[in-house]
Amino acid sequence: MNINKLKEIVMKYVFLFTAIISIVAVVLICVFLFANGVPAMKEIGFANFLGGTKWKPGNGLYGIFPMILGSIYVTGGALIIGVPIGILMSIFMARFCPDRLHKVLKPIVDLLAGIPSIVYGFFGLVVMVPFVREHFKGNGQSILTAALLLGIMILPTIISVSESSIRAVEESYYEGALALGATHERSVFTVVVPAAKSGVFAAVVLGVGRALGETMAVMMVVGNQARVPDSIFKGVRTLTTNIVLEMGYATDLHREALIATGVVLFVFILIINISFSILKRRGKE
Amino acid sequence: MSEKFKISNLDLYYGDFHALKDINMSIHANEITAFIGPSGCGKSTFLKSLNRMNDLVEGCKITGNVLLDGEDIYKGMDVNLLRKRVGMVFQKPNPFPMSIYDNIAYGPRTHGIRSKAKLDEIVEKSLRDAAIWDEVKDRLKKSALGMSGGQQQRLCIARALAVEPEVILMDEPTSALDPISTSKIEDLVIELKKQYTIVMVTHNMQQAVRVSDKTVFFLLGEVIEAGETEKLFSIPQDKRTEDYITGRFG
């Protein structure tokens, strides 16, 4: 057997091995989460766990409904702020912005994506919390503050995914619209962007994933009260912060209830990733 | 026949490259003018300078005059209005990723037509004029991307007709199509010249002979010979034209 063939075979297994490692990691995480979380859910009762409005581990009350709502409100608020800005920005960067400005903007957006979330958290705590306290209501640690902060944090994800999908649209669509007498703006907004819509949706879905999973930055500005919120100026607790706040000292059922919180979060993210890949596939067709 | 386009002393540069050299030409109304010549000779570039699609190319500079009904299209004419008057069909069919109906209605909507009844009428008329109505009338709401290549190209012609242009520019409209679709489009083009002025770039010399009234032969950015199609192909005046049409190069 010649040496090239041998190399070929060895490398094939090296690649296979590296591929297996990441698959094994995912499988192990799943197994760990479900093996520890599902029995706890059973013990608490699925309805009591998912639908219970009281989270008082000291009294044996493990209702995560307030945290589910908290996560949904904070993420929803982040989308209301981040999606319009992000999509319009991506359209600007893909089709309106002069090359020289693009050379400046692109690295800035990339930098925005690279800032550690704890730094965002500090910014939120030091700048945004006082701002909300002084100009709106409450003590500043609120759904609104977290939504504003997360809205900024999801911008780079939305902008870069959406921009690349708009850039990937065939130039012939744009030219076809121009040749019918449409203006640049009309061509972009009525032909090019709609042609990229599955990519733009995918960008939003990724943004949802980012907002839902964010922990540190949110914890620093959201107040962390485990209660069903009745105003955007009040504090809440999200699924992620619930885990990180109490994991340090939790034992027994409490600890398992936190892992079960992780299961719920995992299922949310799973749903989001599945919809992301469905959108991607639809985009290709 | 009345003169639709009059081009005089047109030079076009892409950066430093002198792509079109001193073009002088008249294009007459209700005729089909074919541009022939080897790849890279400037015929498509020249076609695109008639509806200012070259404006999109960075570093493209044009000097000289292009008069449409006596009005210079490069001096003070609204470019969107120009493109409404001078429609274009591209080499590769490029229907928008939307329904057949919306494809046709795109142009009229762009120019401010909102009434549903009026749009319905325009869509039907355009599709009939492009000889594709019978094939698509039952699936107007379906995506245009599900059609065959030949149908897509006729759809693009219908889309161009829907804005009621005066001139239709066609950039090798059949080069991506099979022979049957090609012959349908050729028949269509001959039919359309009754109402429109047509300028067509083609690589296919038989096609030029079959459909066009006038032919212009381009070589290396220059017009070598222009005239009645029949005459140009039977008794070419220039040696280079003769070499090209007899297949000695290109």
UniProtKB/TrEMBL annotation, chain A:
PROSITE patterns referenced in this protein's UniProt entry, alphabetically: ABC_TM1
Keywords annotated in UniProt: Cell membrane, Membrane, Phosphate transport, Transmembrane, Transmembrane helix, Transport
Highest taxon in the source lineage: Bacteria
Gene Ontology molecular function, alphabetical: phosphate transmembrane transporter activity
GO biological process: phosphate ion transport
Membrane-crossing segments per the record: 12-35, 64-96, 108-131, 143-161, 188-212, 257-279
A GO CC annotation given for this chain: plasma membrane
Cell location: Cell membrane
Membrane topology label: Multi-pass membrane protein
InterPro entries cross-referenced by the UniProt entry: MetI-like, MetI-like_sf, Phosphate_PstC, Phosphate_Transport_Permease
PANTHER family assigned to the protein according to its UniProt record, in alphabetical order: PHOSPHATE TRANSPORT SYSTEM PERMEASE PROTEIN PST, PHOSPHATE TRANSPORT SYSTEM PERMEASE PROTEIN PSTC
Family listed: Belongs to the binding-protein-dependent transport system permease family. CysTW subfamily.
Protein name as it appears in the record: Phosphate transport system permease protein
TrEMBL record, chain B:
Record's GO cellular component terms: plasma membrane
Pfam families: ABC_tran (PF00005)
GO molecular function: ATP binding; ATP hydrolysis activity; phosphate transmembrane transporter activity
Enzyme Commission code: 3.6.3.27
Gene3D superfamilies linked: P-loop containing nucleotide triphosphate hydrolases
Keywords, alphabetical: ATP-binding, Cell membrane, Hydrolase, Membrane, Nucleotide-binding, Phosphate transport, Translocase, Transport
Name listed for the protein in its UniProt record: Phosphate ABC transporter, ATP-binding protein
Subcellular location: Cell inner membrane
UniProt main location, coarse: membrane
Role description: Part of the ABC transporter complex PstSACB involved in phosphate import. Responsible for energy coupling to the transport system.
PROSITE patterns the record matches: ABC_TRANSPORTER_1 (PS00211), ABC_TRANSPORTER_2 (PS50893)
